[in-house]
């Protein structure tokens, strides 16, 4: 582990004399006093550029006679501790940037070293860069809790004088991480702050914050707020990103569906379907799933089944690395459940659970477990409910937080079964986290 030493100017001056075997009088010459050098070395006086030039001039004379090459220059002598620390942090940032691609413990080791160094140095722009890198690293590892902590550390250091382009990305990343954590209120607030504060930011970021805030409001079931954001976004997004434009329309359709305006939602979905290329597979699939759900709510189950067949056919072409794959499986499972095909519903819930765990989508795991509890309770599936209970324990341990909806549903099931052992398990586990 490489370590960096920060030297006060007085210490550097003393070491310079020791290296070249000079006393204070020799270094002072006739232009400055020996007493001044003594005061500088003891931190009682500042080293001016003029005094440094005199000392180096005297040093050069002496070393020339001794045929010794001088390695130091005036910039080295007069560089203060803050400037040295700033350069060290530049090196640390470069090291962290190099290590982040490996996604292993070496990044954390270096980060610990950097944070130990930062205890003594409050250089804000470097701190922000380091905390943002740490947030990026933990986000790439799907550790959204730690990622949010570092992004928040970076955000807390931002002031109005900092360039917008340097700080807006932190708000964008933070809003995304809060969404993945299921902290939708924080995600929405983060977007609102960015939209109000950075009025001169690039249109690209304005679109991102409008869209991210709408997603959070949808999850919070504040559909009119979401629609307001989406309508504002719709006016500008098509010029910036046509693919995103159709995502905006899809979210509008979801809002109208939630507000039970099924006709309006259906019109939007059909409008998108008429213009989007089937080869744009992910978007095409999301629209098909939405349509299937709409037809169920319109009591047209045969149409829903037909669309579901087309959905499954296209799903085979989706990459297993696609980040919205867990969401797709979850939504398909809900369609099967509405069609009373519980075997297929369970199959897709479990696939959704598998990929949600892979990406640490805690917000989605919560929803999956809630649906599985309802389904297994109706089917009287004791052993499968025990699996859900274990998943609940694992999820809660990772989040260090209890989802009370899941806990209460499990308690209700085991109360009905008079299963005291399982109730005690839930009590003992939950008591440790509450």
From TrEMBL:
Gene Ontology MF terms: DNA binding
A Pfam short name: TPR_8
Superkingdom of this protein's organism: Bacteria
Transmembrane domains' residue ranges: none
Gene3D superfamilies, sorted: lambda repressor-like DNA-binding domains, Tetratricopeptide repeat domain
Matches recorded under InterPro entries: Cro/C1-type_HTH, Lambda_DNA-bd_dom_sf, TPR-like_helical_dom_sf, TPR_rpt
PROSITE patterns from the UniProt entry: HTH_CROC1 (PS50943), TPR (PS50005)
Protein name as catalogued: Uncharacterized protein
Organism for this UniProt entry: Clostridium felsineum
